[in-house]
């Protein structure tokens, strides 16, 4: 009995897939390959990050501050307080008022060998105290009221604040003092017009005189910053102005102190102004050496004030 033959199974040829899925075309792992672990979930934001995200954002644009901002702030201060109006008003009254009174009692012959701005010298002898007082108050008043804490909080750069105070005060003092001297000179020239009157150059006295009393004010500002007490700083500056003018009378008694007395007599504030205005200019220097000496003293005082500025709590 014959068995029927089993047909042999023919191997089927593998056909290439006609369509590849999208994940194969995109470079996904082949079927059967190990799957990459899913990316880790981001960590939840911390409480600080949530608080910062919910914080108020000001619509005012924030920009970096500079010296110009400090200058604007100090100018707002100095023009908005009554002490500035009072001290500068009294200064103008003394310089212009006394100067015109002195000019009214002179003749054109008096100005044949001296500048027509000499009458302003008599007013500056008293008027310089006003600028000294204002210079002290520019710094010491903020320490007295405690507002300096607000100033340094708004502008932590203390050097910038102090520099702005110096610049604003010096420009204000120089404009007012030089303008008052110029006004007295013009009025004196008009009141004493005559042959020979006004022939002596007097433009230098306007610049030097205004510069001298303005530097005295800056020196007072530095002393006020170091002492941080209005009454103490004003008293110290009055001593700087008055003591060198009085002490030579006593020092002249002894031979050993006579040279010191002569130096103090030459470089005190009153005689320095007299040399600048030609009222007492024996050596013909025009008060240049006295002005240079005041510049040096003022720079030393300002440098000391800068050094102490960062060494104190406030």
Key terms for this structure?
12 helices; disordered N terminus; elongated; mainly alpha; 314 residues
Low-confidence segments: 1-14
Biggest sheet, open or closed, and with what strands and sense? none
Count every beta strand, where a strand is a DSSP E run of 2 or more residues.
0
Shape summary: elongated
Count of DSSP H/I helices: 12
Secondary-structure element string: HHHHHHHHHHHH
The average pLDDT score comes to 84
Beta content comes to under 5%
Gap from first CA to last CA: 124 Å
- What would you call the structural class? mainly alpha
Helix content, binned percent: 55-70%
Radius of gyration: 40 Å
Task: Offer a concise description of the structure.
65% of the residues lie in helices and 0% in strands.
Write the layout of secondary structure elements.
Elements: H1 22-25, H2 47-53, H3 67-80, H4 82-104, H5 118-145, H6 147-154, H7 158-191, H8 203-227, H9 230-251, H10 258-267, H11 269-276, H12 288-309
Helix pairs in contact: 3-7, 4-5, 4-7, 5-7, 5-8, 5-9, 5-11, 7-8, 8-9, 8-12, 9-10
């Amino acid at each position: 009995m014959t068995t029927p033959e089993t047909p042999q199974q023919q191997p089927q040829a593998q056909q290439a897939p006609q369509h590849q899925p999208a994940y194969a075309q995109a470079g996904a792992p082949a079927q059967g390959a190990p799957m990459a672990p899913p990316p880790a979930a981001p960590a939840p934001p911390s409480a600080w990050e949530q608080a910062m995200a919910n914080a108020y954002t000001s619509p005012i644009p924030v920009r970096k501050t500079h010296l110009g901002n400090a200058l604007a702030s100090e100018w707002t201060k100095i023009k908005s307080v009554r002490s500035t109006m009072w001290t500068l008003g009294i200064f103008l009254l003394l310089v212009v008022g006394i100067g015109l009174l002195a000019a009214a009692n002179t003749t054109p012959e008096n100005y044949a060998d001296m500048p027509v701005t000499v009458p302003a010298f008599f007013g500056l002898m008293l008027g310089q105290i006003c600028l000294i007082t204002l210079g002290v108050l520019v710094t010491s008043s903020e320490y007295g009221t405690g507002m300096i804490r607000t100033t340094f909080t708004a502008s932590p750069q203390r050097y910038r604040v102090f520099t702005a105070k110096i610049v604003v005060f010096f420009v204000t003092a120089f404009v007012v003092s030089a303008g008052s001297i110029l006004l007295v000179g013009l009025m004196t020239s008009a009141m004493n017009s005559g042959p020979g009157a006004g022939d002596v150059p007097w433009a230098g006295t306007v610049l030097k005189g205004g510069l001298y009393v303005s530097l005295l004010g800056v020196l007072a500002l530095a002393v006020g910053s170091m002492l941080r007490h209005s009454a103490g700083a004003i008293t110290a500056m009055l001593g700087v102005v008055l003591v060198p003018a009085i002490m030579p009378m006593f020092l002249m008694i002894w031979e050993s102190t006579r040279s010191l007395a002569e130096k103090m007599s030459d470089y005190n504030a009153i005689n320095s102004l007299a040399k600048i205005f030609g009222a007492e200019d024996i050596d013909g220097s025009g008060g240049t050496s006295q002005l240079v000496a005041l510049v040096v003293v003022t720079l030393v005082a300002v440098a000391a004030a800068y050094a102490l500025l960062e060494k104190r709590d406030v």
